[in-house]
Structures are given as structure tokens and as C-alpha cells.
Specification:
Length: 532
């Protein structure tokens, strides 16, 4: 007896079946399910379900595809093995140390470009060097379905559950690596994602799932995203298994929009967890400076006292420790050779390895070399940074220095302009979940009557009080002895108690390694002879 016969429905106990008016499995006809005919393959008496598998070279072969063990495992989850077969799922014997693996193909234009293998005890594997993609990606290529929203799941089991219960009202895809999925491949398929009218985010109801939903909304734009709240368990498959198909479908029907504007009840907001903070990378600064995303940070200091170098090294620390993705706009010095050489020094002595590290982790904003008259203002920066979030997943933006941007004041006073510009930056970072670091020179007021230059504060940046009020962190980089190696980092503002507190810490520049290192305050009279 087939699963469908046992449950009385071609898709099991969910109470729904895709008809000729909607897609049944939402995958390309080559190597996947066809539209509008239900799951026609059935389990054989011999304990295996048969179907068509697509090999890596695009050829098709008919073979036993699901073992009895995998059929029963799917049934125990409330999932239809016949539907799984139609979507190319099959058993690979002895994949995991003699144990069978469940192979789930990732199709692109009907050809398998990768497989995800599920083994016992939550063992997972994928094809070596295979490109990343979305499971069921080809559904995005079906022009007849382009009016439907796209449901993005955290795993293929949830995806199969969603196809099973709501394949006539949504297109279903899934990330391949769960909540920790690297979404950089979105850049490769952006033409498929850009025209989607609405996304429904079906990450699990736990902390990692919430973070995945937040990152998806950041990449895709919260304005066209909704999220699922589960009536039972932590994911859609839990609801299907415990409450049946109708209740699982109700979860999808009841998708809640991400709050964008207007008035909302508390329950309208998805859980985002506690504020997550990150070390600065230097033990002398960690108690004072705890970074978070998305924050606005202001760094100022006397010219040549090391504020640009500090900002770059701070980002490098975030890359090394937390896999941050920064974008850099450098207005005063060229990317090649200056910024590149600075990053090379930080990474190590091998320029080839350093350049590969830079290529992988950093993005740079700049004018088109063919358009020397292009004027770069804050709106230009925000436009390019927004694209960088969507295409490349950046989560840090460095603007160095602020003073070199084209500032279009539109008959505004300096204070009025600064207030408007900072509002724009704040809208960007909140909308896209991207921290912004602004390096800004102080005004000439720091030069005193006796000719000496005092250490600046946040009020000395052009625009005065706005530069103190707007940032979440305000930092002054000071080199008391301009010929020495020691640098004093003064945290003048930390908005939240969890993000640090006002105080100062010391760093010392090592000219041989090109890095700052944590250090104690210098002894009186201690000097050096190289710039930091």
C-alpha cells in the first residue's frame, strides 16, 4: 500500500492536493516534478520508491530511489515519499561509513549542480566544490508562477512540507546550509529574486532561525518580506507532523509582515534576540568598546594621528574574528596602492595570500575611472552601499573621511545639512542591518592661541552637536607624542551599557608587522621614531 493510499490523499494527511490550477511540486520538469498531476510515483512492495534521478552531467536514469528506511523516515515526519521521489530525492547506499544517505538534488535549469546528503545522527555532506544554490531553485524560473510569493525555508524537510501543504499558493525554496547558510550566492541568482513580489521567511522559531530570517530580510528588503509564526514546535514540519496539513497551511496563510512603518502591536514584531556585541580585537579596549550591528560609529582625531589606520585595523579584526564583510570608501588615499598595502601589512608578509584575503573579504566603493566628473555625496554612498548589502552581504561600511564627500546643502545651513545627512545614514543602517563607521576631521578650532593643537572631542567635528548625538560610539584617536608609537584611543560615547563605557585604552604600533597591539600607557618620556 502506498503512502497516499494509507492517508487517503496523494499528499498525505494534510487534506490538500495540488490541482491542475496550481503547481504540485514546483520544480523544473527536467529531473523534477511536473505541474498539476499530483505525486504519481508510488512505493513498491519491495520497500523502495522508484523514480527519475538526474545525474551531475544532466543525464537522467531510472533507478530505485528511496530505501524502506528513508520512506518510513519521511512518513514519520508526515511527509509524502512519493512527492520526494518526484523531486529527485533518492537513497545513496553506504554514503556514511557504510550507512545509507538520503540525497537531495539541487537543480539548476533541470540539471543537478549539487546534492545534499543526510546521514544518520545528523550527518550532512555535499558534492565536492559544488556551487551553492537554493533547493528547488528552478521554481523561480517558471514564468507561469511569477505572480506567486516565494517561501524560503531553513531546510529541505520544511521545504517538502511546504510544497506538500501549500504548493498551489506559494513557490517554495530552501537555503542549503540551514541557519548558518552563506547567502553570497544570491548575487548569482539576483535576476530571479529581484522581481519576486513577496517573500515569506520560514526560518525556525529558535535563535539561529530568527537570525536567518533577519539576514534574508536585510538582503531582500524587509518591505516585501513576511515571517512565519508556528502554532506548534519550531518549524513548519513540526506543525505538519503534530497538527496536520490544514494547520501547517494556516501558518503560511497567516504570515506576518515585517514591521516597516506605522503602528503595530508587540506581537507584530519578530523576535530578534538580545543585543549581540563583538570584541574590538584589543584587550585594552574590549572593556570600553563593544561593537554591535547595526551601529553608527564616529572616529575623529588630529590629522596624521592614526585614526584611518585604527579604523582599518578595527575592521580587519572584525573580519578575522567574526567573518565580517566590510565595504570601504576611501576619499583621501587611493585603494591601490595605499589601502591595499595597509591591508597587506595587517594580513602578513605574503602579498599573494594577502591579496586573496582582501579579494574575498573586502569591497570598495569608488567612482567610475572613466567618469572623472562624477560627484560623490552621501546619497551616492548610500545607494552603492545598499547594492553591496543585497549583492554581497556587507555588514560594515567605512566612510573615510567624511569631509571629502561632496556636500550638497540645498540652501541649508551646515547644521541643517549634517542633521539631514546623518538621518539618511541612520535610515540606511537600520533598514539594511549594516554598521557605519565615519572618519571625520575636526575643525580648525582645535588650534589654540599659543599655536599648540589640543586633543579634539566629538563637538569639534563640523556639525557640532549632531556628531555627538547621532553616533552610538564616539571615538577620538590621539597620539600624544607625534613621533612615537603609542596611540591613545578615547571612547567618548557608548550608547548602551552593554556596548562599553567612556574611558581610554592604549595601543602601540609595530612598524615591522604593520599592526597595532594592546599596550600599557607609555612611560614618561618614552618615544619612537615612526608614524603610527
Amino acid at each position: 500500500m502506498t503512502f497516499s493510499e494509507r492517508t487517503g490523499s496523494s499528499y498525505g494527511s494534510n487534506g490538500t492536493r495540488a490541482s491542475g490550477t496550481g503547481p504540485s511540486a514546483h520544480s523544473a520538469a527536467k529531473g523534477g516534478a511536473t505541474r498539476g498531476n499530483g505525486a504519481s510515483q508510488s512505493s513498491s512492495k519491495g520497500g523502495r520508491s522508484h523514480g527519475t534521478a538526474t545525474t551531475a552531467d544532466g543525464t537522467e536514469e531510472t533507478s530505485p530511489t528511496l530505501s524502506e528506511q528513508h520512506v518510513e523516515a519521511l512518513v514519520s515526519r508526515g511527509l509524502d515519499p512519493e512527492l520526494a521521489v518526484k523531486m529527485g530525492w533518492h537513497t545513496v547506499p553506504a554514503k556514511f561509513s557504510g550507512k545509507d544517505g538520503l540525497a537531495i538534488p539541487m537543480l539548476r535549469e533541470g540539471k543537478a549542480i549539487n546534492h545534499k546528503y543526510r546521514g544518520p545522527n545528523k550527518q550532512f555532506a555535499q558534492d565536492k566544490d559544488a556551487p551553492r544554490s537554493l533547493w528547488n531553485e528552478d521554481v523561480l524560473r517558471d514564468e507561469t508562477l511569477k505572480h506567486l510569493p516565494v517561501l524560503i525555508c531553513e531546510g529541505e524537510m520544511d521545504g517538502l512540507a511546504a510544497v506538500q501543504v501549500a504548493g498551489d499558493i506559494v513557490r517554495v525554496v530552501s537555503v542549503v546550509d540551514g541557519a548558518s547558510s552563506n547567502l553570497d550566492f544570491f548575487a548569482d541568482i539576483w535576476p530571479l529574486l529581484e522581481p519576486v513580489p513577496r517573500f515569506i521567511l520560514a526560518g525556525d522559531g529558535d535563535g539561529p532561525g530568527q537570525k536567518l530570517n533577519a539576514e534574508l530580510a536585510r538582503r531582500l528588503g524587509a518591505a516585501r518580506c513576511a515571517w512565519l509564526e508556528y502554532s506548534h514546535g519550531k518549524d513548519l514540519n513540526d506543525v505538519l507532523r503534530a497538527k496536520g496539513g490544514p494547520q501547517a497551511r494556516l501558518c503560511i496563510d497567516g504570515a506576518k509582515p515585517f514591521p516597516i512603518k506605522g503602528l503595530y502591536r508587540l506581537n507584530d514584531y519578530p523576535e530578534v534576540g538580545e543585543l549581540e556585541v563583538f570584541d574590538s580585537g584589543w584587550i585594552t579596549l574590549n572593556p570600553l568598546l563593544r561593537l554591535w550591528v547595526p551601529e553608527l560609529m564616529l572616529i575623529t582625531g588630529i590629522p596624521s594621528h592614526g585614526k584611518s589606520k585604527f579604523a582599518l585595523h578595527l575592521l580587519c579584526n572584525q573580519v578575522e574574528q567574526y567573518q565580517a564583510r566590510p565595504a570601504i570608501f576611501s576619499a583621501e588615499v587611493p585603494i591601490k596602492p595605499h589601502v591595499r598595502d595597509e591591508l597587506r601589512k595587517f594580513h602578513g608578509v605574503d602579498p599573494v595570500a594577502a591579496d586573496a584575503w582582501i579579494q574575498e573579504n573586502f569591497l570598495f566603493l569608488g567612482s567610475d575611472p572613466r567618469d572623472q566628473d562624477e560627484e560623490i555625496d552621501v546619497d551616492w554612498i548610500i545607494e552603492k552601499a545598499s547594492d553591496a548589502v543585497i549583492r554581497h552581504g556587507i555588514n560594515w561600511l567605512l566612510i573615510d573621511p567624511w569631509n571629502q564627500l561632496e556636500h550638497r546643502r540645498n540652501r541649508e545651513s551646515i547644521d541643517e545639512y549634517q542633521e539631514r545627512a546623518l538621518r539618511s545614514l541612520n535610515r540606511f543602517r537600520r533598514s539594511f542591518g549594516c554598521s557605519v563607521i565615519v572618519v571625520a576631521h575636526p575643525t580648525k578650532d582645535i588650534k589654540q592661541r599659543d599655536g599648540k593643537v589640543r586633543t579634539p572631542n566629538l563637538y569639534d567635528v563640523s556639525g557640532s552637536a549632531h556628531w555627538y548625538n547621532a553616533p552610538d560610539h564616539g571615538i577620538v584617536v590621539d597620539r600624544p607624542d607625534s613621533s612615537g608609537y603609542h596611540v591613545r584611543v578615547c571612547v567618548k560615547k557608548a550608547r548602551f551599557a552593554k556596548s562599553g563605557h567612556v574611558g581610554e585604552g592604549w595601543l602601540k604600533f609595530n612598524p615591522e608587522t604593520g599592526r597595532y597591539a594592546a599596550t600599557l600607557p607609555p612611560e614618561k618620556g618614552e618615544r619612537g621614531n615612526a608614524e603610527a
